[in-house]
Design a protein that fits this description.
Length: 128
């Protein structure tokens, strides 16, 4: 019984570390890609991307700290209700599977090709 407990925690920490690292790796690249759609100079795009990335990384760190507390609370509640950590580990596994699926759908999969729309910019003089 103790071996499964130790293996479960090692797997939990390993998967948490992989998820944490991937989030911090993805954030700057997402804002860099989004900055390309802005009508700014290259220096302004880089500054915007760095500022937005820094803000979101700080927020993700705060949420990550709450996640550590959440794991402890979930394990405690699991022990109080079922005298085992099994239900908490199933909940953790379900959450990780959902998080992997959302990440894959939003950032990894190849999107279906949409027809390209080319629109000429309309100047203020052409509108009048």
């Amino acid at each position: 019984m103790m071996g499964g407990y130790v293996v479960g925690f090692i797997a939990l920490f390993l998967l948490s570390g992989i998820g944490n690292g991937s989030v911090y790796k993805m954030i700057p690249s997402i804002f860099e890609a989004r900055s390309r759609s802005l009508q700014m100079s290259e220096a302004e795009r880089a500054a915007w991307s760095r500022a937005m990335s820094g803000a979101l990384i700080g927020f993700a760190g705060a949420v990550g700290a709450l996640g550590g507390v959440g794991i402890n609370l979930a394990l405690r509640q699991s022990y109080l209700t079922s005298h085992s950590a099994t239900s908490a580990f199933w909940i953790f596994l379900a959450f990780y599977v959902v998080a992997c699926a959302v990440t894959w759908v939003m950032y990894v999969r190849r999107p279906v090709s949409a027809p390209e729309v080319t629109a000429e910019p309309v100047s203020d003089l052409a509108r009048t």
